[in-house]
Amino acid sequence: MTETFTLTAKVQKKGDWYISSCLELDISSQGKTIEEAVSNLKEAVELYIEIEGIDLPVKRPFLTKFKVKGKKTEDKKTEDKKTENKKKN
Questions:
Q1: The dihedral of CA 23, 29, 32, 38: what is its sign?
Q2: What is the rounded distance in angstroms from the CA atom of residue 38 to the CA atom of residue 31?
Q3: What is the C-alpha to C-alpha distance for residues 12 and 38, in angstroms, rounded to an integer?
Q4: Which of 7, 9, 53, 68 is the most exposed place for a label (fewest CB within 10 A)?
């Protein structure tokens, strides 16, 4: 019997591409748009499940958040204004 399962996708922009990753199965794909990246990931996951004979549902990863300290990157306009002000003084 075929059922539909919901998996988790993480999508990040890398240059001109969107990289999509299935967190439960550690599989990734890419596309020129978010929609294409997720569609390609879905296809890759379906093939992986079929070829490897993976039983669903799979356990979801434990996700949490944490904080770290670091220097905030300023945007280009702010940096240009600071450079311009230094030149005037």
A1: negative
A2: 8
A3: 11
A4: 68
Mean pLDDT within 48-72: 88
Report which of 27, 26, 10 is spatially closest to residue 18, judged by C-alpha positions.
10
CB neighbour list of residue 28: distance below 8 Å, 6 or more residues apart: 19, 20, 21, 22, 41, 44
Average pLDDT over residues 71-78: 76
User: Can you read off the two tokens belonging to residue 6?
Assistant: 């919901």
Tell me how crowded residue 17 is: count the other CB atoms within 10 A of its CB: 14
Is residue 61 reached through a cis peptide bond, with omega within 30 degrees of 0 on the bond before it?
A: no
Give the C-alpha separation, 11 to 19, whole Å: 5
- The predicted-structure confidence for 39-53, as pLDDT tens digits, reads as follows 999 999 999 999 998
